[in-house]
Design brief:
The structure holds two protein chains of two kinds.
Chain A (H helix, E strand, L loop, with lengths): L1 E8 L6 H12 L12 E6 L6 H12 L5 E7 L1
Antiparallel strand pairs in A: 1-2, 1-3
Chain B lengths: L1 E6 L6 H12 L4 E4 L9 E6 L13 H4 L2 H11 L4 E4 L1 H8 L6 E3 L7 E9 L15 E8 L3 E3 L2 H9 L3 E5 L10 E5 L5 E4 L17 H11 L1
Parallel strand pairs in B: 1-2, 1-3, 3-4, 4-11
Antiparallel strand pairs in B: 5-8, 6-7, 6-9, 9-10, 10-11
Chain lengths: 76, 221
Protein backbone atom coordinates (compact mmCIF):
# COMPACT_ATOMS: atom_id res chain seq x y z
CA UNK A 1 0.00 0.00 0.00
CA UNK A 2 1.44 3.33 -1.02
CA UNK A 3 1.20 6.37 1.20
CA UNK A 4 2.13 9.95 0.65
CA UNK A 5 2.80 11.98 3.77
CA UNK A 6 2.91 15.73 3.50
CA UNK A 7 4.83 17.46 6.27
CA UNK A 8 4.34 21.22 6.41
CA UNK A 9 5.33 23.96 8.80
CA UNK A 10 2.56 25.08 11.11
CA UNK A 11 0.98 28.40 10.29
CA UNK A 12 2.80 31.15 12.16
CA UNK A 13 6.15 29.34 12.18
CA UNK A 14 8.55 31.42 10.14
CA UNK A 15 9.92 29.60 7.09
CA UNK A 16 13.31 31.07 6.09
CA UNK A 17 13.58 28.55 3.26
CA UNK A 18 10.19 29.51 1.82
CA UNK A 19 11.14 33.16 2.07
CA UNK A 20 14.37 32.54 0.15
CA UNK A 21 12.47 30.67 -2.57
CA UNK A 22 9.98 33.51 -2.80
CA UNK A 23 12.84 35.96 -3.12
CA UNK A 24 14.51 33.85 -5.83
CA UNK A 25 11.27 33.65 -7.82
CA UNK A 26 11.08 37.43 -7.62
CA UNK A 27 14.64 37.67 -8.95
CA UNK A 28 13.61 35.50 -11.91
CA UNK A 29 10.95 38.05 -12.74
CA UNK A 30 7.91 36.16 -11.43
CA UNK A 31 5.81 38.89 -9.92
CA UNK A 32 2.91 38.38 -7.57
CA UNK A 33 4.27 35.45 -5.55
CA UNK A 34 2.74 36.48 -2.25
CA UNK A 35 4.02 33.70 -0.04
CA UNK A 36 5.99 30.45 -0.26
CA UNK A 37 6.07 27.70 2.35
CA UNK A 38 8.37 24.74 1.79
CA UNK A 39 7.61 21.31 3.24
CA UNK A 40 8.42 17.65 2.73
CA UNK A 41 6.74 14.85 0.86
CA UNK A 42 7.50 11.38 2.20
CA UNK A 43 6.42 8.47 0.01
CA UNK A 44 6.14 5.10 1.70
CA UNK A 45 5.16 1.60 0.74
CA UNK A 46 3.67 -0.14 3.78
CA UNK A 47 2.11 -3.56 4.32
CA UNK A 48 -1.50 -3.81 3.18
CA UNK A 49 -3.82 -3.44 6.12
CA UNK A 50 -1.52 -1.06 8.03
CA UNK A 51 -4.10 0.82 10.03
CA UNK A 52 -4.54 4.56 10.27
CA UNK A 53 -3.57 4.61 13.92
CA UNK A 54 -0.17 3.05 13.15
CA UNK A 55 0.48 5.54 10.35
CA UNK A 56 -0.52 8.34 12.66
CA UNK A 57 1.98 7.11 15.26
CA UNK A 58 4.72 6.98 12.60
CA UNK A 59 4.00 10.61 11.80
CA UNK A 60 3.88 11.80 15.40
CA UNK A 61 6.86 9.80 16.64
CA UNK A 62 9.26 10.47 13.79
CA UNK A 63 8.15 11.80 10.43
CA UNK A 64 6.91 15.17 11.69
CA UNK A 65 8.09 17.28 14.61
CA UNK A 66 4.71 18.37 15.91
CA UNK A 67 6.26 21.31 17.76
CA UNK A 68 6.70 23.04 14.40
CA UNK A 69 5.09 20.83 11.76
CA UNK A 70 1.70 19.49 10.68
CA UNK A 71 1.22 16.35 8.64
CA UNK A 72 -1.38 14.96 6.27
CA UNK A 73 -1.57 11.39 5.02
CA UNK A 74 -2.80 10.56 1.55
CA UNK A 75 -3.44 6.98 0.48
CA UNK A 76 -2.55 6.41 -3.15
CA UNK B 1 33.20 11.91 38.61
CA UNK B 2 32.64 9.42 35.80
CA UNK B 3 31.06 10.84 32.68
CA UNK B 4 29.75 9.47 29.40
CA UNK B 5 29.77 10.91 25.90
CA UNK B 6 27.14 9.58 23.51
CA UNK B 7 28.43 8.88 20.01
CA UNK B 8 26.19 8.68 16.95
CA UNK B 9 27.19 8.01 13.37
CA UNK B 10 28.10 11.52 12.23
CA UNK B 11 29.00 12.96 15.64
CA UNK B 12 32.13 15.07 15.24
CA UNK B 13 32.56 16.95 18.53
CA UNK B 14 32.54 13.82 20.68
CA UNK B 15 36.29 13.82 21.17
CA UNK B 16 36.43 17.56 21.87
CA UNK B 17 33.83 17.28 24.60
CA UNK B 18 35.58 14.18 25.98
CA UNK B 19 38.79 16.19 26.28
CA UNK B 20 36.96 19.02 28.06
CA UNK B 21 35.32 16.59 30.48
CA UNK B 22 38.58 14.79 31.15
CA UNK B 23 40.28 18.10 31.81
CA UNK B 24 37.65 18.98 34.42
CA UNK B 25 37.20 15.57 36.04
CA UNK B 26 40.62 14.00 35.64
CA UNK B 27 38.93 10.89 34.26
CA UNK B 28 38.47 9.81 30.69
CA UNK B 29 34.75 9.68 29.82
CA UNK B 30 33.14 6.48 28.60
CA UNK B 31 32.33 6.81 24.90
CA UNK B 32 28.91 5.22 24.47
CA UNK B 33 27.82 4.11 21.01
CA UNK B 34 24.24 4.89 19.97
CA UNK B 35 23.18 1.23 19.83
CA UNK B 36 23.85 0.70 23.55
CA UNK B 37 20.77 0.30 25.71
CA UNK B 38 22.42 1.18 29.00
CA UNK B 39 24.92 3.72 30.27
CA UNK B 40 27.96 2.47 32.20
CA UNK B 41 27.40 2.13 35.97
CA UNK B 42 28.13 5.18 38.08
CA UNK B 43 27.97 7.84 35.38
CA UNK B 44 27.55 11.23 37.06
CA UNK B 45 26.97 13.31 33.91
CA UNK B 46 26.19 12.67 30.26
CA UNK B 47 27.20 14.73 27.23
CA UNK B 48 25.42 14.61 23.88
CA UNK B 49 27.95 16.06 21.46
CA UNK B 50 27.80 18.19 18.35
CA UNK B 51 28.06 16.98 14.81
CA UNK B 52 25.76 15.81 12.07
CA UNK B 53 24.22 12.66 13.47
CA UNK B 54 22.71 10.55 10.68
CA UNK B 55 23.68 13.26 8.21
CA UNK B 56 20.93 15.52 9.59
CA UNK B 57 18.50 13.34 7.61
CA UNK B 58 14.80 14.12 8.05
CA UNK B 59 15.56 16.89 10.61
CA UNK B 60 18.72 17.64 12.58
CA UNK B 61 18.83 15.25 15.52
CA UNK B 62 15.57 13.50 14.60
CA UNK B 63 16.96 10.04 13.94
CA UNK B 64 19.53 10.15 16.75
CA UNK B 65 16.79 11.11 19.20
CA UNK B 66 15.07 7.76 18.50
CA UNK B 67 18.20 5.63 18.86
CA UNK B 68 18.35 3.01 21.65
CA UNK B 69 20.87 4.89 23.80
CA UNK B 70 18.58 7.90 24.11
CA UNK B 71 16.14 5.87 26.19
CA UNK B 72 18.98 5.25 28.64
CA UNK B 73 19.86 8.97 28.59
CA UNK B 74 16.23 9.87 29.30
CA UNK B 75 16.14 7.37 32.20
CA UNK B 76 19.35 8.85 33.65
CA UNK B 77 17.95 12.38 33.31
CA UNK B 78 14.78 11.22 35.06
CA UNK B 79 16.90 10.16 38.00
CA UNK B 80 18.51 13.61 38.10
CA UNK B 81 21.77 12.91 36.24
CA UNK B 82 22.94 16.10 34.50
CA UNK B 83 22.79 15.93 30.70
CA UNK B 84 24.59 18.47 28.53
CA UNK B 85 23.70 18.70 24.84
CA UNK B 86 25.83 20.92 22.63
CA UNK B 87 24.85 21.96 19.11
CA UNK B 88 23.62 18.76 17.45
CA UNK B 89 23.29 17.44 21.00
CA UNK B 90 20.82 20.28 21.74
CA UNK B 91 18.91 19.38 18.58
CA UNK B 92 18.83 15.72 19.67
CA UNK B 93 17.51 16.66 23.13
CA UNK B 94 14.67 18.77 21.69
CA UNK B 95 13.81 16.04 19.18
CA UNK B 96 13.78 13.52 22.03
CA UNK B 97 11.32 15.73 23.91
CA UNK B 98 13.76 16.21 26.81
CA UNK B 99 13.85 19.95 26.14
CA UNK B 100 10.99 22.08 24.77
CA UNK B 101 10.91 23.79 21.38
CA UNK B 102 12.77 23.07 18.17
CA UNK B 103 15.89 24.24 16.35
CA UNK B 104 15.09 25.43 12.87
CA UNK B 105 17.17 26.50 9.90
CA UNK B 106 19.10 29.73 10.61
CA UNK B 107 17.04 32.75 9.66
CA UNK B 108 19.53 33.89 7.01
CA UNK B 109 19.88 30.27 5.78
CA UNK B 110 23.67 30.38 6.05
CA UNK B 111 25.87 28.11 8.11
CA UNK B 112 27.27 30.27 10.92
CA UNK B 113 30.78 29.40 12.07
CA UNK B 114 32.45 32.02 14.27
CA UNK B 115 33.02 33.19 17.81
CA UNK B 116 29.93 34.75 19.36
CA UNK B 117 29.40 36.71 22.50
CA UNK B 118 26.95 35.27 24.99
CA UNK B 119 25.37 36.55 28.14
CA UNK B 120 24.98 34.21 31.08
CA UNK B 121 21.26 34.64 31.71
CA UNK B 122 21.14 32.43 34.78
CA UNK B 123 24.23 31.68 36.87
CA UNK B 124 22.30 29.66 39.42
CA UNK B 125 22.26 26.32 37.59
CA UNK B 126 24.19 23.06 37.70
CA UNK B 127 26.08 24.19 34.62
CA UNK B 128 26.67 27.89 35.16
CA UNK B 129 27.53 28.27 38.85
CA UNK B 130 31.08 29.37 38.03
CA UNK B 131 29.83 32.32 35.99
CA UNK B 132 28.25 35.56 37.13
CA UNK B 133 24.70 36.41 36.06
CA UNK B 134 24.93 38.90 33.21
CA UNK B 135 28.58 38.03 32.56
CA UNK B 136 29.60 38.01 28.90
CA UNK B 137 31.57 35.08 27.53
CA UNK B 138 32.69 34.07 24.06
CA UNK B 139 32.10 30.56 22.71
CA UNK B 140 32.37 29.47 19.07
CA UNK B 141 29.23 28.49 17.14
CA UNK B 142 29.15 26.25 14.09
CA UNK B 143 25.66 25.38 12.97
CA UNK B 144 23.05 25.56 10.26
CA UNK B 145 20.02 24.83 12.42
CA UNK B 146 20.33 26.94 15.54
CA UNK B 147 17.26 29.08 15.21
CA UNK B 148 15.44 28.29 18.44
CA UNK B 149 11.68 28.21 18.13
CA UNK B 150 9.00 27.69 20.74
CA UNK B 151 5.51 29.12 21.06
CA UNK B 152 5.11 32.31 23.08
CA UNK B 153 3.71 30.54 26.14
CA UNK B 154 6.71 28.23 26.25
CA UNK B 155 9.13 31.14 25.80
CA UNK B 156 7.41 33.08 28.58
CA UNK B 157 7.63 30.05 30.84
CA UNK B 158 11.32 29.48 30.04
CA UNK B 159 12.11 33.08 30.85
CA UNK B 160 9.86 33.24 33.91
CA UNK B 161 11.38 30.11 35.41
CA UNK B 162 14.99 31.13 34.80
CA UNK B 163 15.43 28.35 32.28
CA UNK B 164 17.25 30.47 29.70
CA UNK B 165 20.88 29.79 30.61
CA UNK B 166 22.63 31.65 27.78
CA UNK B 167 21.56 34.33 25.32
CA UNK B 168 23.28 35.73 22.26
CA UNK B 169 24.32 39.32 22.82
CA UNK B 170 23.66 40.11 19.13
CA UNK B 171 21.47 38.12 16.71
CA UNK B 172 23.24 35.05 15.31
CA UNK B 173 20.64 32.78 13.76
CA UNK B 174 17.19 34.28 14.28
CA UNK B 175 16.71 32.47 17.59
CA UNK B 176 13.59 33.47 19.53
CA UNK B 177 14.43 36.04 22.22
CA UNK B 178 18.14 35.52 21.41
CA UNK B 179 18.09 32.18 23.18
CA UNK B 180 21.35 30.23 22.93
CA UNK B 181 20.81 27.65 25.69
CA UNK B 182 17.93 26.39 27.81
CA UNK B 183 17.28 24.07 30.73
CA UNK B 184 14.56 21.53 31.38
CA UNK B 185 12.08 22.14 34.17
CA UNK B 186 14.14 20.25 36.73
CA UNK B 187 17.31 22.08 35.73
CA UNK B 188 19.47 19.01 35.11
CA UNK B 189 19.40 19.11 31.30
CA UNK B 190 21.10 21.94 29.42
CA UNK B 191 21.01 22.29 25.65
CA UNK B 192 23.02 25.02 23.96
CA UNK B 193 24.09 25.75 20.40
CA UNK B 194 27.49 27.38 21.10
CA UNK B 195 30.43 25.08 21.88
CA UNK B 196 31.91 25.52 25.38
CA UNK B 197 34.17 22.52 24.72
CA UNK B 198 35.90 24.44 21.95
CA UNK B 199 36.98 27.13 24.40
CA UNK B 200 38.65 25.32 27.27
CA UNK B 201 42.34 26.12 26.93
CA UNK B 202 44.53 29.01 25.82
CA UNK B 203 45.41 27.17 22.60
CA UNK B 204 41.73 27.49 21.65
CA UNK B 205 42.09 31.25 21.77
CA UNK B 206 40.16 31.51 25.03
CA UNK B 207 39.01 29.28 27.84
CA UNK B 208 35.60 30.74 28.71
CA UNK B 209 33.98 27.33 28.37
CA UNK B 210 36.14 25.68 30.96
CA UNK B 211 34.13 26.93 33.92
CA UNK B 212 31.01 25.22 32.59
CA UNK B 213 32.66 21.81 32.94
CA UNK B 214 34.31 22.71 36.25
CA UNK B 215 31.01 24.00 37.63
CA UNK B 216 29.26 20.84 36.56
CA UNK B 217 31.90 18.72 38.28
CA UNK B 218 31.55 20.76 41.44
CA UNK B 219 27.76 20.49 41.34
CA UNK B 220 27.76 16.74 40.95
CA UNK B 221 30.71 15.80 43.15
Amino acid sequence: MKLRIFVTLKPGVLDPQGRAIQHALGSLGFDGVNDVRAGKLIEMDVADGTDDAAVDRMCRQLLANTVIENYRVERA
Amino acid sequence: MNTAVIVFPGSNCDRDIAVALEQATGRRPAMVWHTETELPQGVGAVAVPGGFSYGDYLRSGAVAARSPVMRAVADAADKGTPVLGVCNGFQVLTEAGLLPGALMRNAELNFVCRDVELEVANADTLFTSRYQAGERVVFPVAHHDGNYYADDDTLDRLEGEGRVAFRYVAPVNGSARHIAGILNERGNILGLMPHPERAVEPAHGRDHGRRLFEGLLEAVA
